Amino acid sequence: MHGGHHHHRGAQSHHHDHDHDHHHHGHQHAGPGHNRQRDIVQWQVPHRPESKDLSPPHERDLDLVEASFVENFARASDPTSFLRLAGIPFVGVDASGNVLHLLRVETADRTDIGAVVPLLGGGGVRYDVLPARMTSRRHDLGFLYHDGKGVVRLSFAEARKLEDRTDASHFNIESTE
């Protein structure tokens, strides 16, 4: 079909089947049925949109890496090796030059099952139990380091950004005598 009309049949004239003239409508046809050999098409990988994430590959999808860390850290038979695999320094230096020593890894699971919403006019709040589809589970992860003065809590990303000085760590012990 072409333009809602049938193509050539038998001895009928081309102009009787179509209500337009092929030689004057702006495109050329190659032979009967308007079939012609098509140009060769080159296979290409589709272009992906330019990513604005210029972070190094080991820092991409860090939220997924952190979720996997939380899921598996408590089950690790060797927490020290697990921390090494995750790139968490035992002794690290932050951007300000402070030396931090890892004391503890804290993980906590939280499940939100209710919501409190303020009432119009500010006269109180309304509490509702959330339906199952609206409950949310969150994992809290923290790395507690000592900076020589006190305990500093770092996130997964912050701990991974520390300059690792684990192998070069030493402590001076002063005599109390």
Q: What would you note in describing this structure?
A:
The protein has 4 helices and 7 strands, in the order αααββββββαβ. With 177 residues, it is α+β, with helices and mostly antiparallel strands. The strands form 2 sheets. A 5-stranded antiparallel β-sheet has the order 6-5-2-1-7. The chain has a two-stranded antiparallel sheet with strand order 3-4. A hairpin with a 6-residue loop joins strand 3 (114-118) and strand 4 (125-129). It is elongated.
Question: How is the secondary structure organized here?
Answer:
Layout: H1 14-17, H2 62-73, H3 79-86, E1 91-93, E2 99-112, E3 114-118, E4 125-129, E5 136-146, E6 151-154, H4 156-161, E7 163-164
Antiparallel strand pairs: 1-2, 1-7, 2-5, 3-4, 5-6
Summarize the structure.
By secondary structure, this protein is of the alpha+beta class.
Question: Given the helix and strand composition, which structural class is it?
Answer: alpha+beta
Rounded mean pLDDT score = 77
Number of helices: 4
- Please bin the fraction of helical residues: 10-25%
The strands making up the biggest β-sheet line up spatially as 6-5-2-1-7
The low-confidence runs, each spanning 5 or more residues with pLDDT under 50, are 4-22
Shape: elongated
Distance between the termini: 105 Å
Order of helices and strands: HHHEEEEEEHE
DSSP summary, beta strand count = 7
Gyration radius (Cα, Å) is: 35 Å
The proportion of strand residues reads: 15-25%
The biggest beta sheet is recorded as:
5 strands, antiparallel
